[in-house]
Write a structure and sequence with these properties.
This protein is of the alpha/beta class and 618 residues long. Helices cover 47% and strands 12% of the residues. The protein has helices spanning 2-8, 10-13, 20-23, 26-51, 80-98, 108-116, 123-136, 150-157, 162-172, 195-208, 222-235, 260-272, 289-302, 318-327, 349-356, 367-372, 374-383, 398-401, 405-417, 424-437, 447-460, 465-470, 479-485, 500-505, 519-527, 529-537, 539-552, 560-565; strands at residues 103-106, 142-147, 178-182, 212-215, 239-245, 277-282, 307-311, 332-335, 572-578, 581-590, 598-605, 608-615. Helix 11 links the parallel strand 4 (212-215) and strand 5. Helix 13 runs parallel beside helix 14. It is globular and about 70 Å long. The structure holds 3-hydroxypyruvic acid and zinc ion.
Length: 618
């Protein structure tokens, strides 16, 4: 269209073409930009089509075809966010404590796909279902939709700006509180950041759309959570839900460290630090039904705050834990859409609704509505099949290795990548040994990564964990382990493992704990908080994200099948660049590689042939 417009231009025909020609004609500039954008998209599509980084696509079913009908013109049903906006966070928390119905957080938008599909679900696929969730399940307490690994993965693998996702979801579900998982001082990263970073992060997240911040620290160190709690409270509008991370087995007579008393002392500090809600974060699914009953009862007896329970269904029985907790008075629980539930993810929302319907604590959610959303998620899960962890069924081994749900799926993939795939049981056993050597710590991001890195290093080196413990200097020790031992993540609940720690740190120069922010970065945080946070938290992935935008333009316009696998010969793909601007892209042929390894990918775009050269990396 650009060339055609140019040819028809009277100035062009008359030979009066100055450099201002295009500048003076914004309509031609748009044409030129979109031609350029088209080329960028074709370049991306050529690269994935030829190189298939995720293998061939496994489904042609469009998830959108599975969405239940809704009347998008009807007024949106009121939801918990209306109450939060009206009454503020304290009254909102008080109401949660006072209500009889058990409140439910829906985790499919964050933890479920983090735990099942390596966090790969793209904003586009979340946005298609978001209005349906807002209309069909307005009784939800919140939708956990951001934080945890989503931020990192958006920049690193999805070519997405995590802030755009949050802003879009906010708009799509205005009646429902959006919840995020915040790793205390580590925010959404793996090491602690200065308080100014936490402050800026929380302020920007609350302004963009987060209503409920679930804050935890990987070693249950309340001092490491305090800046985040203070920052959330300072917003005046957002809810500070502060988590105690659950590990071990409090009902076991052999449990000497993580006892009921330990959790109650921790909850005391959490309450004093200003929590509106106390969360039990059972990241590995270790909380057994009797322990849930004991812990929930004790927390509700001693504290005024409502209690919110989060678990993973790794061993397969956590609906039992939810029901025991509900019986004991827990105020809110987490669950995921059935198609994205179970094993390393949360228990199923359908089974929770069905199990409580007709009881005084019924969720208020409509079972049919909840069920109607399942086919969509099932189809989405098939699209993301390349990222399935390979864990086909529950595993009771979690009671021994204690690997968090979000890590278990990941660790299997890491083990496969290191050639240890057929020795995964050894990785699990060594994870348990590494945990013991490091002092029986709480294992959740980033402390879980420390234990996982050590386990992989030991299995990779065929090391005997006892020999490593006695003689750590004989071995290469992962950086994360040295950082942990030098106190980078704070102090572990059981104290430091000695003499192992001193020996392991011999001759090392540990980095200072938290570096201060430079005046330039402080200024940048004020001037451009989102971009600066991306850069400070994830410098490498942010560069990759920017490079992708430059080279390919915004890939959010591509459907996920195209994004992952490119396009197939003979199929025409409609790509909506923006409302009213649709590209029609087809693939004619892919040539053999020439002697430099280049292939010519022959596309059609808007009916015209568009050859793109691409290197075959396979
Ligand atoms: C995260 O930090 O991403 C987690 O999900 C921890 O459970
Ligand atoms: Zn979780």
């Amino acid at each position: 269209p650009f060339l055609q417009a140019l040819l028809e231009e009277p100035d062009f025909q008359a030979g009066r073409l100055s450099t201002a020609f295009i500048d003076e004609r914004p309509e031609l500039r748009t044409a030129r930009i979109s031609a350029d954008r088209g080329t960028k998209l074709l370049t991306y599509l050529a690269e994935v089509t030829v190189n298939q980084p995720h293998g061939p696509g496994r489904t042609r079913i469009s998830p959108r075809s599975k969405l239940p009908a809704i009347d998008a013109t009807a007024p949106l049903p009121p939801g918990a966010r209306d109450r939060l906006l009206r009454e503020g966070p304290q009254a909102f928390a008080d109401a949660l404590r006072a209500q009889e119905a058990v409140a439910v957080t829906e985790t499919t938008f964050r933890d479920a796909h983090q735990s099942l599909l390596a966090t790969r679900v793209r904003t586009r696929d979340l946005m298609h279902v978001a209005p349906h969730v807002a209309r069909l399940t307005p009784q939800l307490f919140s939708v956990e939709a951001w934080g945890g690994a989503t931020y990192d993965v958006a920049l690193r693998f999805l070519a997405e700006d995590p802030w755009d996702r949050l802003a879009q979801l906010r708009e799509a579900m205005p009646n429902l509180p959006l919840q995020m998982l915040l790793r205390g001082r580590n925010t959404v990263g793996y090491t602690p950041y200065p308080t100014a970073v936490t402050d800026a992060f929380v302020t920007e997240a609350a302004a963009t759309g987060i209503d409920v911040f679930r804050i935890f620290d990987a070693l249950n160190d309340v001092n490491q959570m305090r800046p985040a709690i203070d920052a959330v409270r300072a917003t005046g509008t957002a809810v500070a839900e502060v988590a105690l991370c659950y590990t071990g087995d409090l009902t076991s007579p052999g449990e000497k460290l993580y006892t009921l008393d330990y959790y109650l002392r921790l909850a005391e500090q959490i309450a004093e630090a200003g929590a509106h809600i106390i969360a039990i974060k059972d990241m590995a699914g270790l909380l057994r039904a009797p322990a849930a009953r004991t812990l929930v009862t004790a927390l509700r007896e001693r504290f005024d705050q409502p209690v919110h329970l989060h678990t993973h269904d790794t061993a397969g029985g956590q609906l039992g834990t939810l029901l025991a907790a509900i019986d004991a008075g827990v105020d809110a629980v987490d669950a995921a859409s059935a198609a994205m539930s179970g094993t390393t993810s949360q228990p199923s929302l359908s089974s929770l609704v069905a199990a409580t319907d007709g009881t005084p604590r019924a969720t208020g959610l409509d079972l049919t509505a909840v069920n109607d959303l399942e086919p969509y998620w099932e189809a989405v899960r098939q699209v993301y099949a390349p990222f399935e962890s390979g864990l086909l069924a529950p595993t009771g081994r979690v009671y021994t290795h204690e690997i968090p749900g979000g890590q278990l799926s990941n660790l299997r993939q890491q083990a496969i990548a290191l050639g240890l795939g057929d020795r995964f049981e050894a990785v699990e056993d060594t994870y348990a040994a590494a945990n013991r050597i490091l002092g029986n710590i709480v294992k959740v991001t980033p402390s879980s990564k420390v234990v996982g890195d050590l386990a992989l290093a030991l299995v990779g080196a065929k090391a005997d964990p006892d020999d490593f413990e006695a003689n750590p200097t004989k071995y290469d020790i992962p950086d994360s382990v040295i950082g942990f031992l030098s106190g980078e993540l704070g102090d572990p609940p059981g104290g430091w493992p000695e003499p192992f720690r001193t020996k392991a740190l011999e001759g090392r120069n540990p980095k200072p704990r938290v570096t201060e922010l430079s005046p330039e970065d402080a200024e940048a945080l004020r001037a451009a908080p989102r971009q600066t946070l991306n850069r400070l938290l994830f410098p490498g992935p942010t560069k990759d994200f920017e490079k992708s935008r430059d080279a390919y333009s915004d890939l959010a316009v591509l459907g996920t099948r195209e994004f992952l696998h490119g396009i197939e010969v003979g199929h025409e793909h409609e790509i909506d660049l923006e409302p009213g601007k649709r590209l029609l892209i087809g693939l004619q042929s892919v040539s053999d590689a020439d002697d430099r390894g280049m292939r010519t990918v022959m596309f059609t775009m808007g009916g015209q042939l568009r050859p793109i050269q691409v290197r075959d990396e396979k």
